[in-house]
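re the bet — no i am not wrong, look at it urself. input seq straight from the record:
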Amino acid sequence: MNIDKVLIIDFGSQVTKLIARRVRELGVYSEILNINHLKNIKKLESVKGIILSGGPASVTQKKYPKISKEIFLKKIPILGICYGLQLISKSFGGKVKNNKKKREFGRALLFEKKKSVLTKNFFDKKITNVWMSHQDAVTNLPKGFNKIASTKNSALTIIENKNLNIYGIQFHPEITHTQNGKTLFYNFLFHICKIKKKWKIGLQKKRLIDLIKKKVKGNKVICALSGGVDSSVSALLINKAIKSNLICIMVDTGLMRKNEFKKTYKIFKKKYKLNVKLINASKLYYSKLKNISDPEKKRKLIGKLFINIFEKEAKKNKKIKFLAQGTLYPDIIESRSTTGKSTKIKSHHNVGGLPKKMRLKLIEPLRDFFKDEVRSLGKSLGLTDKINNRHPFPGPGLAIRILGKVTPDKIRILQDADHIFINELINKKFYNKIWQAYAALLPVKTVGVMGDTRTYEHICLLRAVISEDGMSADYFKFPQWFLDNISNKIINNVPGINRVVYDITSKPPSTIELE
Protein backbone atom coordinates (compact mmCIF):
# COMPACT_ATOMS: atom_id res chain seq x y z
CA MET A 1 0.00 0.00 0.00
CA ASN A 2 1.70 3.17 -1.21
CA ILE A 3 0.93 5.59 1.63
CA ASP A 4 2.92 6.87 4.59
CA LYS A 5 3.14 4.05 7.08
CA VAL A 6 4.72 2.60 10.17
CA LEU A 7 6.39 -0.79 9.88
CA ILE A 8 6.03 -3.22 12.76
CA ILE A 9 8.76 -5.85 12.78
CA ASP A 10 7.37 -8.98 14.39
CA PHE A 11 9.77 -11.02 16.50
CA GLY A 12 7.14 -13.55 17.50
CA SER A 13 5.03 -11.82 20.15
CA GLN A 14 1.48 -13.13 20.47
CA VAL A 15 0.23 -9.52 20.77
CA THR A 16 2.03 -7.90 17.82
CA LYS A 17 -1.32 -7.34 16.10
CA LEU A 18 -2.34 -5.14 19.03
CA ILE A 19 0.51 -2.77 18.17
CA ALA A 20 -0.81 -2.48 14.63
CA ARG A 21 -4.30 -1.86 15.98
CA ARG A 22 -3.15 0.92 18.33
CA VAL A 23 -1.31 2.68 15.50
CA ARG A 24 -4.29 2.47 13.14
CA GLU A 25 -6.67 3.69 15.84
CA LEU A 26 -4.59 6.85 15.92
CA GLY A 27 -5.07 7.40 12.17
CA VAL A 28 -1.80 5.98 10.83
CA TYR A 29 -1.48 3.00 8.50
CA SER A 30 0.60 0.19 10.00
CA GLU A 31 1.94 -2.98 8.46
CA ILE A 32 3.39 -6.07 10.15
CA LEU A 33 6.45 -7.69 8.60
CA ASN A 34 8.83 -10.37 9.79
CA ILE A 35 12.61 -9.93 9.63
CA ASN A 36 12.85 -11.86 6.37
CA HIS A 37 10.45 -9.43 4.70
CA LEU A 38 12.49 -6.50 6.00
CA LYS A 39 15.61 -7.83 4.24
CA ASN A 40 13.81 -7.56 0.91
CA ILE A 41 12.83 -3.90 1.33
CA LYS A 42 15.18 -1.73 -0.69
CA LYS A 43 13.35 1.56 -0.42
CA LEU A 44 11.91 2.92 2.80
CA GLU A 45 10.74 6.35 1.58
CA SER A 46 7.12 5.83 2.61
CA VAL A 47 8.14 4.39 6.01
CA LYS A 48 7.94 7.13 8.63
CA GLY A 49 8.64 4.95 11.66
CA ILE A 50 9.60 1.41 12.70
CA ILE A 51 8.37 -0.48 15.76
CA LEU A 52 10.19 -3.60 16.95
CA SER A 53 7.86 -6.01 18.72
CA GLY A 54 8.40 -8.30 21.68
CA GLY A 55 9.08 -11.99 21.26
CA PRO A 56 10.17 -15.23 22.92
CA ALA A 57 13.82 -15.09 21.79
CA SER A 58 16.75 -13.90 23.94
CA VAL A 59 19.68 -11.74 22.83
CA THR A 60 21.72 -13.50 25.52
CA GLN A 61 21.84 -16.62 23.32
CA LYS A 62 24.44 -17.22 20.59
CA LYS A 63 21.82 -17.04 17.86
CA TYR A 64 18.89 -14.63 18.01
CA PRO A 65 16.71 -12.77 15.46
CA LYS A 66 18.10 -9.37 14.52
CA ILE A 67 17.86 -6.66 11.87
CA SER A 68 20.61 -5.01 9.86
CA LYS A 69 22.56 -2.27 11.66
CA GLU A 70 21.94 -0.14 8.54
CA ILE A 71 18.25 0.10 9.48
CA PHE A 72 19.21 1.72 12.80
CA LEU A 73 21.39 4.28 11.03
CA LYS A 74 18.82 5.46 8.46
CA LYS A 75 17.48 8.05 10.91
CA ILE A 76 13.98 6.56 10.62
CA PRO A 77 12.49 6.82 14.14
CA ILE A 78 12.51 3.43 15.89
CA LEU A 79 10.59 2.24 18.94
CA GLY A 80 11.63 -1.09 20.49
CA ILE A 81 9.16 -2.91 22.76
CA CYS A 82 10.39 -5.60 25.21
CA TYR A 83 12.58 -7.81 22.98
CA GLY A 84 12.87 -4.76 20.71
CA LEU A 85 14.46 -2.76 23.55
CA GLN A 86 16.89 -5.59 24.30
CA LEU A 87 17.85 -5.89 20.62
CA ILE A 88 18.51 -2.15 20.40
CA SER A 89 20.68 -2.28 23.52
CA LYS A 90 22.65 -5.28 22.29
CA SER A 91 23.16 -3.71 18.84
CA PHE A 92 24.66 -0.54 20.34
CA GLY A 93 26.97 -2.18 22.87
CA GLY A 94 24.74 -2.30 25.94
CA LYS A 95 24.47 -5.34 28.19
CA VAL A 96 21.45 -7.60 28.57
CA LYS A 97 21.26 -10.27 31.26
CA ASN A 98 18.91 -13.12 32.02
CA ASN A 99 17.75 -12.79 35.63
CA LYS A 100 15.31 -15.42 36.91
CA LYS A 101 15.22 -13.85 40.39
CA LYS A 102 14.20 -10.38 39.21
CA ARG A 103 11.90 -11.19 36.33
CA GLU A 104 8.71 -9.17 35.87
CA PHE A 105 5.35 -10.56 34.76
CA GLY A 106 2.15 -8.55 35.14
CA ARG A 107 1.66 -5.06 36.51
CA ALA A 108 4.61 -2.96 37.68
CA LEU A 109 5.09 0.59 38.92
CA LEU A 110 7.14 2.75 36.55
CA PHE A 111 9.03 5.79 37.87
CA GLU A 112 10.03 8.74 35.70
CA LYS A 113 13.74 9.66 35.93
CA LYS A 114 14.04 12.15 33.08
CA LYS A 115 11.73 14.07 30.74
CA SER A 116 11.31 12.75 27.18
CA VAL A 117 9.21 13.55 24.13
CA LEU A 118 8.15 9.89 24.15
CA THR A 119 6.67 10.12 27.65
CA LYS A 120 4.91 13.48 27.38
CA ASN A 121 1.61 13.27 29.38
CA PHE A 122 2.32 9.60 30.08
CA PHE A 123 3.15 9.79 33.79
CA ASP A 124 0.84 10.83 36.60
CA LYS A 125 3.07 12.71 39.05
CA LYS A 126 6.13 10.79 37.80
CA ILE A 127 4.52 7.35 38.43
CA THR A 128 2.36 5.05 36.31
CA ASN A 129 1.30 1.41 36.00
CA VAL A 130 2.67 -0.69 33.14
CA TRP A 131 2.33 -4.31 32.00
CA MET A 132 5.54 -6.35 32.04
CA SER A 133 6.39 -9.74 30.57
CA HIS A 134 10.14 -10.38 30.65
CA GLN A 135 13.02 -12.24 32.24
CA ASP A 136 15.88 -10.63 30.32
CA ALA A 137 16.72 -7.05 31.25
CA VAL A 138 19.08 -4.31 30.05
CA THR A 139 21.72 -3.84 32.75
CA ASN A 140 24.16 -1.42 31.07
CA LEU A 141 23.14 1.54 28.89
CA PRO A 142 24.36 1.40 25.29
CA LYS A 143 26.59 4.29 24.20
CA GLY A 144 24.71 7.47 23.30
CA PHE A 145 21.53 6.48 25.17
CA ASN A 146 19.90 8.04 28.25
CA LYS A 147 17.78 6.49 30.98
CA ILE A 148 14.21 7.83 31.04
CA ALA A 149 12.34 5.56 33.47
CA SER A 150 12.78 2.58 35.82
CA THR A 151 10.86 -0.03 37.79
CA LYS A 152 11.96 -1.73 41.01
CA ASN A 153 13.48 -4.69 39.15
CA SER A 154 14.40 -3.03 35.87
CA ALA A 155 16.59 0.07 36.09
CA LEU A 156 16.55 0.73 32.34
CA THR A 157 12.87 0.37 31.48
CA ILE A 158 12.77 3.29 29.03
CA ILE A 159 15.86 4.50 27.17
CA GLU A 160 16.38 6.92 24.29
CA ASN A 161 18.96 8.16 21.79
CA LYS A 162 17.62 11.51 20.56
CA ASN A 163 20.34 11.94 17.93
CA LEU A 164 19.41 8.68 16.20
CA ASN A 165 15.68 8.93 17.05
CA ILE A 166 15.77 5.50 18.70
CA TYR A 167 13.64 4.65 21.75
CA GLY A 168 13.22 1.47 23.76
CA ILE A 169 10.70 0.38 26.38
CA GLN A 170 10.65 -2.85 28.39
CA PHE A 171 6.89 -3.00 29.02
CA HIS A 172 3.93 -3.46 26.64
CA PRO A 173 2.01 -0.22 25.89
CA GLU A 174 -0.22 -2.10 23.41
CA ILE A 175 -1.84 -4.04 26.27
CA THR A 176 -4.79 -2.24 27.89
CA HIS A 177 -3.36 -3.02 31.35
CA THR A 178 -0.64 -0.40 30.72
CA GLN A 179 -1.97 2.93 31.92
CA ASN A 180 -1.96 5.57 29.14
CA GLY A 181 -0.25 3.15 26.74
CA LYS A 182 -1.89 4.87 23.79
CA THR A 183 -0.18 8.12 24.79
CA LEU A 184 3.23 6.58 24.12
CA PHE A 185 2.19 5.57 20.62
CA TYR A 186 0.69 9.04 20.06
CA ASN A 187 3.95 10.72 21.06
CA PHE A 188 6.04 8.37 18.93
CA LEU A 189 3.88 8.81 15.84
CA PHE A 190 3.17 12.53 15.92
CA HIS A 191 5.96 14.13 17.96
CA ILE A 192 8.86 11.87 16.96
CA CYS A 193 7.92 10.43 13.53
CA LYS A 194 6.00 13.65 12.70
CA ILE A 195 3.58 11.62 10.61
CA LYS A 196 0.19 12.98 9.52
CA LYS A 197 -3.16 11.30 10.15
CA LYS A 198 -4.22 9.91 6.79
CA TRP A 199 -5.67 6.50 7.62
CA LYS A 200 -9.46 6.66 7.67
CA ILE A 201 -11.33 3.53 6.77
CA GLY A 202 -14.16 5.47 5.12
CA LEU A 203 -11.69 6.93 2.60
CA GLN A 204 -10.49 3.45 1.58
CA LYS A 205 -13.69 2.47 -0.25
CA LYS A 206 -12.96 4.35 -3.49
CA ARG A 207 -9.31 3.23 -3.49
CA LEU A 208 -10.32 -0.42 -3.08
CA ILE A 209 -12.97 -0.22 -5.82
CA ASP A 210 -10.41 1.28 -8.22
CA LEU A 211 -7.87 -1.44 -7.34
CA ILE A 212 -10.43 -4.19 -7.98
CA LYS A 213 -11.34 -2.71 -11.39
CA LYS A 214 -7.67 -2.49 -12.34
CA LYS A 215 -6.94 -6.05 -11.26
CA VAL A 216 -9.99 -7.75 -12.78
CA LYS A 217 -9.83 -5.98 -16.20
CA GLY A 218 -13.16 -7.17 -17.58
CA ASN A 219 -12.87 -10.77 -16.35
CA LYS A 220 -15.39 -12.42 -14.08
CA VAL A 221 -14.99 -13.06 -10.35
CA ILE A 222 -16.62 -15.72 -8.22
CA CYS A 223 -16.99 -14.75 -4.57
CA ALA A 224 -17.21 -17.18 -1.68
CA LEU A 225 -20.20 -15.71 0.14
CA SER A 226 -21.01 -17.21 3.54
CA GLY A 227 -23.17 -14.41 4.92
CA GLY A 228 -20.68 -13.42 7.59
CA VAL A 229 -19.37 -9.87 7.90
CA ASP A 230 -16.11 -10.41 6.00
CA SER A 231 -17.45 -12.18 2.90
CA SER A 232 -20.50 -9.90 2.78
CA VAL A 233 -18.40 -6.72 2.76
CA SER A 234 -16.10 -8.26 0.12
CA ALA A 235 -19.09 -9.10 -2.08
CA LEU A 236 -20.65 -5.62 -1.85
CA LEU A 237 -17.28 -3.96 -2.48
CA ILE A 238 -16.53 -6.08 -5.56
CA ASN A 239 -20.09 -5.59 -6.81
CA LYS A 240 -19.56 -1.82 -6.70
CA ALA A 241 -16.47 -2.29 -8.86
CA ILE A 242 -17.52 -4.82 -11.50
CA LYS A 243 -21.33 -5.21 -11.24
CA SER A 244 -22.54 -8.16 -13.39
CA ASN A 245 -19.04 -9.64 -13.65
CA LEU A 246 -19.39 -10.80 -10.04
CA ILE A 247 -20.88 -14.23 -9.38
CA CYS A 248 -21.47 -14.98 -5.70
CA ILE A 249 -21.53 -18.61 -4.67
CA MET A 250 -23.03 -19.73 -1.39
CA VAL A 251 -21.95 -23.24 -0.51
CA ASP A 252 -24.25 -25.01 1.92
CA THR A 253 -21.71 -27.11 3.79
CA GLY A 254 -24.28 -28.22 6.33
CA LEU A 255 -22.02 -26.65 8.96
CA MET A 256 -23.77 -23.28 9.33
CA ARG A 257 -26.06 -22.13 12.13
CA LYS A 258 -29.72 -23.15 12.05
CA ASN A 259 -31.71 -21.48 9.23
CA GLU A 260 -28.91 -18.94 8.69
CA PHE A 261 -28.10 -20.03 5.16
CA LYS A 262 -31.60 -19.51 3.70
CA LYS A 263 -32.11 -16.17 5.47
CA THR A 264 -28.79 -14.80 4.23
CA TYR A 265 -29.46 -15.94 0.67
CA LYS A 266 -32.74 -13.99 0.60
CA ILE A 267 -31.06 -10.81 1.88
CA PHE A 268 -28.40 -10.78 -0.85
CA LYS A 269 -30.76 -11.87 -3.61
CA LYS A 270 -33.65 -9.52 -2.83
CA LYS A 271 -32.17 -6.56 -0.92
CA TYR A 272 -28.81 -6.20 -2.70
CA LYS A 273 -29.76 -7.78 -6.06
CA LEU A 274 -26.52 -9.76 -6.22
CA ASN A 275 -26.03 -12.61 -8.66
CA VAL A 276 -26.04 -15.47 -6.12
CA LYS A 277 -25.89 -19.18 -6.84
CA LEU A 278 -26.62 -21.83 -4.20
CA ILE A 279 -24.72 -25.09 -4.05
CA ASN A 280 -25.81 -27.80 -1.62
CA ALA A 281 -22.66 -29.68 -0.66
CA SER A 282 -23.60 -30.87 2.83
CA LYS A 283 -23.47 -34.57 1.92
CA LEU A 284 -19.99 -34.09 0.42
CA TYR A 285 -18.71 -32.34 3.55
CA TYR A 286 -20.21 -34.90 5.90
CA SER A 287 -18.67 -37.78 3.97
CA LYS A 288 -15.21 -36.16 3.80
CA LEU A 289 -15.27 -35.22 7.50
CA LYS A 290 -16.28 -38.73 8.57
CA ASN A 291 -13.96 -40.11 11.29
CA ILE A 292 -11.72 -36.97 11.28
CA SER A 293 -11.07 -35.63 14.78
CA ASP A 294 -7.91 -33.51 14.44
CA PRO A 295 -8.88 -29.78 14.27
CA GLU A 296 -6.11 -28.81 11.82
CA LYS A 297 -7.13 -31.60 9.47
CA LYS A 298 -10.74 -30.42 9.67
CA ARG A 299 -9.77 -26.84 8.82
CA LYS A 300 -7.54 -27.77 5.90
CA LEU A 301 -9.98 -30.30 4.47
CA ILE A 302 -12.82 -27.78 4.58
CA GLY A 303 -10.64 -25.14 2.90
CA LYS A 304 -9.60 -27.57 0.17
CA LEU A 305 -13.22 -28.59 -0.52
CA PHE A 306 -14.19 -24.92 -0.85
CA ILE A 307 -11.53 -24.36 -3.49
CA ASN A 308 -12.44 -27.55 -5.37
CA ILE A 309 -16.08 -26.46 -5.57
CA PHE A 310 -15.22 -22.97 -6.79
CA GLU A 311 -12.72 -24.20 -9.37
CA LYS A 312 -15.32 -26.65 -10.66
CA GLU A 313 -17.80 -23.78 -11.04
CA ALA A 314 -15.17 -21.61 -12.72
CA LYS A 315 -14.63 -24.21 -15.45
CA LYS A 316 -18.21 -23.58 -16.59
CA ASN A 317 -17.29 -20.04 -17.65
CA LYS A 318 -13.94 -19.28 -19.31
CA LYS A 319 -14.15 -15.62 -18.28
CA ILE A 320 -13.93 -16.51 -14.57
CA LYS A 321 -10.33 -15.86 -13.59
CA PHE A 322 -10.58 -14.81 -9.95
CA LEU A 323 -11.78 -16.20 -6.62
CA ALA A 324 -12.73 -13.55 -4.04
CA GLN A 325 -12.51 -14.24 -0.32
CA GLY A 326 -13.18 -12.27 2.86
CA THR A 327 -9.69 -12.85 4.25
CA LEU A 328 -8.70 -10.32 6.95
CA TYR A 329 -5.31 -9.11 8.14
CA PRO A 330 -5.42 -11.18 11.36
CA ASP A 331 -6.10 -14.30 9.24
CA ILE A 332 -2.92 -13.67 7.27
CA ILE A 333 -0.76 -13.05 10.33
CA GLU A 334 -2.19 -15.87 12.47
CA SER A 335 -1.76 -18.47 9.72
CA ARG A 336 1.94 -17.89 9.17
CA SER A 337 5.09 -17.99 11.23
CA THR A 338 6.55 -14.61 12.08
CA THR A 339 10.27 -15.14 12.61
CA GLY A 340 10.37 -18.73 11.48
CA LYS A 341 10.39 -19.93 15.10
CA SER A 342 7.14 -18.67 16.54
CA THR A 343 4.08 -20.85 16.93
CA LYS A 344 1.31 -20.89 14.36
CA ILE A 345 -1.86 -21.03 16.46
CA LYS A 346 -4.38 -22.13 13.82
CA SER A 347 -4.82 -22.39 10.08
CA HIS A 348 -7.64 -20.27 8.71
CA HIS A 349 -9.62 -22.03 6.00
CA ASN A 350 -9.14 -19.18 3.54
CA VAL A 351 -5.38 -19.10 4.20
CA GLY A 352 -4.04 -22.33 5.65
CA GLY A 353 -6.43 -24.52 3.66
CA LEU A 354 -5.49 -23.23 0.22
CA PRO A 355 -3.74 -25.66 -2.13
CA LYS A 356 -0.29 -24.69 -3.41
CA LYS A 357 -1.48 -24.67 -7.01
CA MET A 358 -4.71 -22.95 -7.99
CA ARG A 359 -6.16 -22.22 -11.42
CA LEU A 360 -7.99 -19.18 -10.07
CA LYS A 361 -6.20 -16.05 -8.94
CA LEU A 362 -7.11 -14.79 -5.48
CA ILE A 363 -8.64 -11.40 -4.87
CA GLU A 364 -8.82 -10.46 -1.20
CA PRO A 365 -9.80 -6.78 -0.88
CA LEU A 366 -9.91 -6.88 2.94
CA ARG A 367 -6.55 -8.53 3.61
CA ASP A 368 -5.11 -5.25 5.00
CA PHE A 369 -7.95 -4.67 7.48
CA PHE A 370 -8.93 -5.60 11.02
CA LYS A 371 -12.47 -6.71 11.93
CA ASP A 372 -13.67 -3.37 13.30
CA GLU A 373 -12.32 -1.62 10.18
CA VAL A 374 -14.28 -4.07 8.03
CA ARG A 375 -17.45 -3.27 9.97
CA SER A 376 -16.88 0.44 9.30
CA LEU A 377 -16.42 -0.32 5.62
CA GLY A 378 -19.58 -2.44 5.66
CA LYS A 379 -21.54 0.43 7.17
CA SER A 380 -20.33 2.79 4.44
CA LEU A 381 -21.46 0.22 1.82
CA GLY A 382 -24.95 0.02 3.33
CA LEU A 383 -24.63 -3.48 4.75
CA THR A 384 -27.59 -4.24 7.01
CA ASP A 385 -26.86 -4.21 10.75
CA LYS A 386 -28.19 -7.78 11.02
CA ILE A 387 -25.10 -8.92 9.13
CA ASN A 388 -22.64 -6.12 9.88
CA ASN A 389 -23.03 -6.51 13.65
CA ARG A 390 -22.90 -10.30 13.67
CA HIS A 391 -20.45 -12.02 15.96
CA PRO A 392 -17.42 -13.55 14.23
CA PHE A 393 -18.14 -17.03 12.88
CA PRO A 394 -15.36 -19.45 11.88
CA GLY A 395 -14.97 -20.41 8.23
CA PRO A 396 -15.05 -24.16 9.03
CA GLY A 397 -18.35 -23.52 10.83
CA LEU A 398 -19.73 -25.91 13.40
CA ALA A 399 -17.17 -28.56 12.45
CA ILE A 400 -14.70 -26.99 14.86
CA ARG A 401 -17.33 -26.51 17.54
CA ILE A 402 -17.89 -30.24 17.63
CA LEU A 403 -14.80 -31.58 19.33
CA GLY A 404 -13.91 -34.92 17.85
CA LYS A 405 -15.75 -36.59 14.99
CA VAL A 406 -18.42 -34.68 13.07
CA THR A 407 -21.73 -36.39 12.25
CA PRO A 408 -25.05 -35.10 10.86
CA ASP A 409 -26.72 -35.98 14.18
CA LYS A 410 -24.19 -33.94 16.18
CA ILE A 411 -24.65 -31.03 13.76
CA ARG A 412 -28.41 -31.14 14.27
CA ILE A 413 -28.03 -31.21 18.07
CA LEU A 414 -25.53 -28.34 18.06
CA GLN A 415 -27.57 -26.21 15.66
CA ASP A 416 -30.60 -26.49 17.94
CA ALA A 417 -28.64 -25.66 21.11
CA ASP A 418 -26.79 -22.77 19.48
CA HIS A 419 -30.06 -21.40 18.06
CA ILE A 420 -31.59 -21.27 21.53
CA PHE A 421 -28.47 -19.66 23.04
CA ILE A 422 -28.09 -16.92 20.41
CA ASN A 423 -31.81 -16.08 20.41
CA GLU A 424 -31.80 -15.77 24.20
CA LEU A 425 -28.81 -13.41 23.99
CA ILE A 426 -30.72 -11.26 21.51
CA ASN A 427 -34.01 -11.34 23.45
CA LYS A 428 -32.34 -10.50 26.77
CA LYS A 429 -30.27 -7.66 25.20
CA PHE A 430 -26.90 -9.31 25.82
CA TYR A 431 -25.89 -9.97 22.20
CA ASN A 432 -24.46 -6.54 21.39
CA LYS A 433 -22.48 -6.48 24.64
CA ILE A 434 -20.57 -9.61 23.62
CA TRP A 435 -17.75 -9.97 21.09
CA GLN A 436 -18.48 -13.61 20.30
CA ALA A 437 -20.79 -16.30 21.65
CA TYR A 438 -21.54 -19.86 20.67
CA ALA A 439 -22.47 -23.36 21.78
CA ALA A 440 -20.14 -26.36 21.32
CA LEU A 441 -20.34 -30.11 21.86
CA LEU A 442 -17.64 -31.75 23.94
CA PRO A 443 -16.28 -35.18 22.92
CA VAL A 444 -17.70 -36.99 25.96
CA LYS A 445 -21.12 -38.08 27.15
CA THR A 446 -22.37 -38.07 30.72
CA VAL A 447 -25.07 -39.83 32.71
CA GLY A 448 -28.23 -37.91 33.51
CA VAL A 449 -31.72 -38.52 34.83
CA MET A 450 -34.85 -37.39 32.97
CA GLY A 451 -38.30 -38.54 34.07
CA ASP A 452 -36.79 -41.16 36.38
CA THR A 453 -34.97 -42.61 33.37
CA ARG A 454 -31.21 -42.84 32.94
CA THR A 455 -29.77 -40.84 30.03
CA TYR A 456 -26.32 -40.92 28.49
CA GLU A 457 -25.99 -37.84 26.32
CA HIS A 458 -23.75 -34.98 25.16
CA ILE A 459 -22.29 -32.09 27.16
CA CYS A 460 -23.08 -28.68 25.65
CA LEU A 461 -20.46 -26.02 26.39
CA LEU A 462 -21.47 -22.37 26.14
CA ARG A 463 -18.89 -19.67 25.48
CA ALA A 464 -19.32 -15.89 25.45
CA VAL A 465 -16.44 -13.42 25.53
CA ILE A 466 -15.89 -9.68 25.61
CA SER A 467 -13.01 -8.22 23.62
CA GLU A 468 -11.86 -5.17 21.69
CA ASP A 469 -10.39 -7.06 18.76
CA GLY A 470 -10.35 -10.79 19.48
CA MET A 471 -6.64 -10.77 20.29
CA SER A 472 -7.29 -10.98 24.01
CA ALA A 473 -10.62 -11.70 25.65
CA ASP A 474 -12.39 -12.31 28.95
CA TYR A 475 -15.51 -14.36 29.57
CA PHE A 476 -18.81 -12.51 29.80
CA LYS A 477 -20.19 -12.45 33.33
CA PHE A 478 -23.83 -13.47 32.96
CA PRO A 479 -26.24 -13.00 35.87
CA GLN A 480 -27.11 -16.27 37.59
CA TRP A 481 -30.73 -16.16 36.42
CA PHE A 482 -29.64 -16.19 32.77
CA LEU A 483 -27.39 -19.22 33.22
CA ASP A 484 -30.18 -21.06 35.07
CA ASN A 485 -32.66 -20.20 32.34
CA ILE A 486 -30.46 -21.08 29.34
CA SER A 487 -29.41 -24.40 30.86
CA ASN A 488 -33.05 -25.40 31.37
CA LYS A 489 -34.09 -24.30 27.89
CA ILE A 490 -31.36 -26.24 26.12
CA ILE A 491 -31.81 -29.44 28.11
CA ASN A 492 -35.61 -29.35 27.84
CA ASN A 493 -35.68 -28.58 24.11
CA VAL A 494 -32.67 -30.36 22.60
CA PRO A 495 -32.77 -34.16 22.64
CA GLY A 496 -29.20 -35.44 22.88
CA ILE A 497 -27.98 -32.98 25.53
CA ASN A 498 -28.31 -33.64 29.26
CA ARG A 499 -25.67 -31.30 30.68
CA VAL A 500 -24.74 -27.63 30.05
CA VAL A 501 -21.48 -26.00 31.19
CA TYR A 502 -20.20 -22.42 30.84
CA ASP A 503 -16.58 -21.70 29.88
CA ILE A 504 -15.00 -19.08 32.19
CA THR A 505 -11.50 -19.12 30.66
CA SER A 506 -9.91 -15.94 29.30
CA LYS A 507 -7.69 -15.52 26.22
CA PRO A 508 -4.84 -16.09 26.92
CA PRO A 509 -4.32 -18.80 28.11
CA SER A 510 -7.12 -20.26 25.99
CA THR A 511 -8.28 -19.29 22.50
CA ILE A 512 -11.82 -18.07 21.80
CA GLU A 513 -12.70 -21.10 19.68
CA LEU A 514 -12.11 -24.55 21.17
CA GLU A 515 -10.42 -25.90 18.04
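see?? The domain at 201-388 is CATH 3.40.50.620 (Rossmann fold). told u. also The longest helix spans residues 295-314. so pay up
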